[in-house]
Design brief:
The protein is 33% helix and 29% strand. It is built from one helix and nine strands; from the N terminus they run αβββββββββ. The strands form two sheets. Strands 4, 6, 7, 8 and 9 form a five-stranded antiparallel β-sheet that branches. It has a four-stranded antiparallel β-sheet with strand order 3-2-1-5, covered by helices on one side.
């Protein structure tokens, strides 16, 4: 009796189905990770924008200077979070996630806080807050009038070291 060795069509189809299912699962977990990074960065940008808005509105409503400072303890480290101070009392603090880096670039260069005057102006301080993670970045531009606007999420494309934002 001659016995032929090989796989049946059903065995081959079952193996192909299993391999394709595993590859879809692995690719979707990578996509989920990217989506999670996007959401984390968007939430951090939203919280920074809300903090700028709160500080400006509080200055106008209370008719006193309000300070938005970097770091929960106002140490100037924007990546740690932000705090809103009025007459040296902390009214609000927000901590950013550890994987988000926040940098201030503008005038003055190493700014540790932004002051809002009773008329809502940012005391002639203008510049850009860059928010970055490993894959994406976004920014919030603050002008001298105390108003700001933000960018959509942008993908990191660094061609030389001069392009590094964070």
């Amino acid at each position: 009796m001659n016995k032929v060795k090989g796989f049946t069509l059903i065995e081959v189809l079952v193996v192909i189905t299993i391999v394709s299912s595993v590859s879809v699962f692995l690719s979707s977990s990578n996509a989920f990770s990217l989506l999670s990074n996007e959401n984390t960065l968007l939430k951090a940008k939203e919280n920074l924008g809300l903090s700028l808005l709160r500080a400006r509105q509080l200055a106008v409503n209370s008719q006193t200077e309000v300070i938005l400072c970097g770091g929960v303890s106002c140490n100037g480290n924007w990546s740690q979070g932000v705090s809103i101070l009025i007459q040296n009392d902390v009214l609000y603090s927000h901590v950013f996630p550890n994987d988000i880096e926040v940098k201030w670039k503008g005038f003055p260069v190493h700014k540790t806080s932004v002051s809002f005057l009773p008329n809502g102006l940012s005391s002639y301080q203008n510049g850009t807050f860059y928010l970055c993670d490993a894959t994406f970045y976004s920014y919030i531009r603050l002008n001298q009038s105390g108003r700001f606007y933000s960018s959509p999420l942008l993908e990191m494309q660094i061609e030389n070291t001069e392009d590094i934002l964070c």
